[in-house]
Amino acid sequence: MKKISNPQALRQLQETLKKDFDPNKKLVTICAGTGCRGYGCIKVKEELETEIKKQGLDVEVRATGCFGFCEKGPLVVIHPEKIFYQQVKEKDVADIVSKTVASGEVLEKLLYRDPDTQQTVLKEEEVPFYKKQLRLVFGQNGMIDPTRIEDYLIIGGYSALAKTLSEFTPEGVISEVKKAGLRGRGGGGFAAGVKWEGSRRAHGEPKYVIANGDEGDPGAYMDRSLMEGNPHSILEGMIIGAYAIGASEGYIYVRNEYPLAVLHLTMAIAAAKEAGLLGKNILGTDFSFDIHINKGGGAFVCGESSALFASIEGRAGEPRAKYIHAVEKGLWDKPTVLNNVETWANVPLIITRGADWYASIGTEGSKGTKIFSLVGKINNTGLIEVPMGMTLREIIYDMGGGIPNGRKFKAVQTGGPSGGCIPESLLDLPVDFDKLYEVGSMMGSGGMIVMDDKSCMVDVAKYFLAFLQEESCGKCVPCREGVRRMREILEDICAGKGKEGDVELLEHLSTGVADGSLCALGGSAPNPVLSTIKYFRQEYDAHIREHRCPAGVCKALITYSIDPEKCTGCTLCSRVCPVQAITGEKKQAHTINNDLCTRCGACIESCKFDAILVK
Amino acid sequence: MVNMIIDGKNVAATEGTMLLEAIRGAGISVPTLCAHESVSRSGACRLCVVEIKKGNRTRIVTSCLYGVEEGLVVNTKSDRVQNVRRLVMELLLARCPESGLLQKMAQEMGIAPQLRFALDTDKGTCILCRSCVRVCEEVVGVSAIGLFARGSHKTVGTPFMEQSEACIGCGACAYVCPTDHIVMTSTGDKRKIWGRTFKMQACSKCGKFFAPVDQLKFISKKTGTSFEELSVCTECR
Amino acid sequence: MKKTGNYSAKTREIVKKHGGEKSALIAVLQDIQEAFNYLPKQALKTAASAMNLPLSRVYEVATFYTAFSLKPRGEHVVKICMGTACHVRGASSIQDKFERTLGIKPGETSADGKFSLETVNCVGACALGPVVVINTEYHGQVTMAKVDKIVGKINKEGAQS
């Protein structure tokens, strides 16, 4: 692409590109997000291309970013009618091309079917999963090929940058972002504009902006989908931020586990540079800014700003005591603004549509939308974007479609290892930064892991502490040793070796670990324990006093048996049992020898008659 | 000078200094394990925590790293502070049950071991205060030892836990170690530390073995002083 | 087995590519691991001297980040996702099953050098949980029965080639 010499030329280029793009032309988009790739969408895409060619049609097949509805992937949309096909297999492709693409005929069997009414739904936006969403940041993912800058320009990409450079002073940008009420999407929810202002005012050159794409919260993958699916939106936000702060260099710190995100961001940076949207004299102005990519090495603690700086500087990711703010002394001790990738992707929207519009969405203290990953024991897993303030019930039941296999909802875990488990009694809680904090959890980066009555809350607490013990950098005593000791107590409880007073001791240790730790990892490490004690105390008591795991998870506290009424003697379980604990004659009810049984669950998985009982 | 209130007393301190010095200067004792005077501070042990109040906000900070501030109200003995110190001592006592220093400090602080914790047997008396690593890097300048792995697996040692080529056998690490975890043995013309045996230089005047040959070579190279000149022990110099 | 000289030459090349910048240490180690499938001791020593860094610093970084392996890894690296979504959907049973099937624990490599088993704290493919990533391929909704199929398929492919 030729260098764009000024904001006016950008507008002209967008117009030209739009003219070449006929919205009524046939187009097939296929989601190429991680979920759909896992379901084999790349093969479906190749098959679509082959078939279209074979049938002599002239139709583009576009692999786009993630559509969000991962549960039903691979997802395909036929434009301009916007016919939404789900769970598309290679064998469906011939029909899709010859019928839907060639003559507009709808294939009923590929449409989404409402599980309650059995009615099929034709378009994406009418599917219940999408209906209540407000996909401002994430919505463009499904239309653009993330490897082509032209696609981003057609949908108005980089207009916000052009507007910034021609209409705003740096201070003007900051006041707009402050007025919009944008808060950081990475965890703490700190006001982005305030951070930017602090850094603009700070002394020291050069100044840096950093996008944190080290999505560490287990159960969250929205940042991945943004980096993979719409990398230019992140770059545009960063460039605007850099202009506001006066930064000349930027970094995107991406998780090592996300190679596709690295690839798409690298391509986006190269394309933006070529187009004069990044690099020296952006859009012909005297503002210059460059972005580098750093790959993380696999350390959750690098979500902590000072640890992330250490990592970019090439050192072990150990946090430093933060008595001087990063906005003044951050990366290489220079003024630095660090925001999460989703935060950056919100910035172009604020500039284009104005702070007042942005601030009209959401709640009193939390503005705009938030992308959540809805995962775990839920029917419609996927990524959703909703206005702040939507209730957990709407999210879990209206969009998420409730709990699978007719089981009962128990808790939703938000905020990753720093967050907590929220019980059923709080399902009508409007979700925003402050409300989640009030109930002992956190927004975090937006993971929502739904748990049913087969999830043990003591086991969940133990899981998070095991995670944190492994991810603690090991620098300060309360986190390194304290989290380990708390975990040991939880291990004991789950093994039936819990002692009276353990819960109180855990609460007591929690206070010291939270107060005494050097960084927020240790500071918030007790949250999963405290929130499960607060809302699910009876489960702790059942483990400690009755040596019983009510959810049937903790192996030391459960036994397997076979329901003779249900067992048909098919012998499958005895064949999969790794320790030969199951015996019985063919066509006769089988029995389990509990002295041998390791509670591995292989028999439960194999049984087609639901005959294995867990007590 | 900046003026603060520490435990109800008016205290003036020099700008740019740390709270720890101001508090101790006021005659109030603060326990520390990792703040060794010859190395930079890391805030690793957390024993020196105090509660500070600015406006209506109170928070716990490590006094060794928090700079003095005008108008700051400091409480060195609040419940929150005591609770953190108690936890740190309980955790360290369980990690290093053999450490005499920790036992002595705990006794002075009136802290008993937490019996619910299983005692570690594999950590020696290392509390990971990092003084040894910092002295090796900042004072000696060889960075022969480092902090490896992370979380509860963190250890201090030489790379690959092998004999280090960078080590000069100076023993500064053993000298700053508060809990005597680092073992250095000297017999005759030999000194052993970090699994490596160093040849000691005899003083050219009194004949006493006083420093490892490698250390003298290192100093000679660094300062330009001849090896012969350095081969005189401090007492004979 | 690659020779020591080989490690050194390639490592020097990698360091040069990154301009010898000290801040590029993590990227250098990532490239070394990409080249040799792990971080050979000789390569770390070469990197330290070529970048003018103490070996202790290099070793610190190499042991801090979990993406790095100081031991040679198998031909196929099996990474079991331990994210929360996978955990509540039974990832630990899948881990047990892999341990039984391959006869190794996380962090170990099978005697024939064919498989290494690793756990990852969330691979960011939560909708597919439980997820296992083998080399670069994602396997979603893994069951214990599927583990046998996956391992069987890899063994079969290996036998043919």
Short description:
Chain B is an alpha+beta fold and 237 residues long.
The biggest beta sheet of chain B, please? Answer: 5 strands, mixed
- As laid out across the biggest beta sheet of chain B, the strand order is 2-1-5-3-4
| Strand order in the sheet with the most strands of chain C | 2-1-3-4
Ends apart, CA distance between termini of chain B: 42 Å
Beta-strand content of chain C? 5-15%
Shape of chain C: elongated
Using the coordinates shown, work out and report the CATH topology of the largest domain in chain B: Ubiquitin-like (UB roll)
Rg of chain C to the nearest angstrom? 18 Å
| Proportion of residues in extended strands of chain B | 15-25%
Number of strands of chain B: 11
Question: Structural class given helices, strands, pairing of chain C?
Answer: alpha+beta
CATH class of the largest domain in chain B: Alpha Beta
CATH superfamily label of the largest domain in chain C:
Glutaredoxin
The CATH topology of the largest domain in chain C turns out to be Glutaredoxin
Account of the protein in words:
The complex is a heterotrimer of chains A (615), B (237) and C (161). By secondary structure, chain A is an alpha/beta fold. In chain A, 40% of the residues lie in helices and 14% in strands. The radius of gyration of chain A is 26 Å and the shape is globular. Chain B is α+β, with helices and mostly antiparallel strands and 237 residues long. Helix content of chain B is 27%, strand content 21%. Chain B contains seven helices and eleven strands. In chain B, the strands form three sheets. Chain B has a five-stranded mixed sheet with strand order 2-1-5-3-4, with helices on both faces. In chain B, helix 2 packs antiparallel against helix 3. The relative contact order of chain B is 0.10. In chain C, helix 1 (4-17) packs across helix 2 (25-36), helix 1 (4-17) packs across helix 3 and helix 6 runs parallel beside helix 7. Chain C contains seven helices and four strands, in the order ααααβααβββα. Chain C is of the alpha+beta class and 161 residues long. Chain C has two domains: 4-64; 76-160, Glutaredoxin. The longest helix of chain C is centred in the last third of the chain and has 17 residues, at 144-160. Chain C has a four-stranded mixed sheet with strand order 2-1-3-4, covered by helices on one side. Chains in contact: A-B, A-C, B-C. Chains A and C meet through helix 2, strand 11, strand 15, helix 18 and helix 24 of A and helix 2, helix 4, helix 5 and helix 6 of C.
